[in-house]
Amino acid sequence: MEKGGEKMKGLVMAARFSLGCNEAALFPERGQALLRFLENPQDITTIKQAEETLGQFKILFPYLSLIGRINGLEPFSQEVVEAYFIGNKLLRNVPIVETRRVVNQIYSQEVSLVPDFVPHHNWHLLTVLPQTQGMSIPLSLFNFCMVKLGKIQAIHQDKVTVRAWKLSVTKGKLNIGWIDESIPRDTILIDELELGDKVAIHWRYICEKLSSKQAQHLEEYTHQVLGYAKIRGE
Question: Would the pTM count as exceeding 0.70?
Answer without folding.
Answer: yes
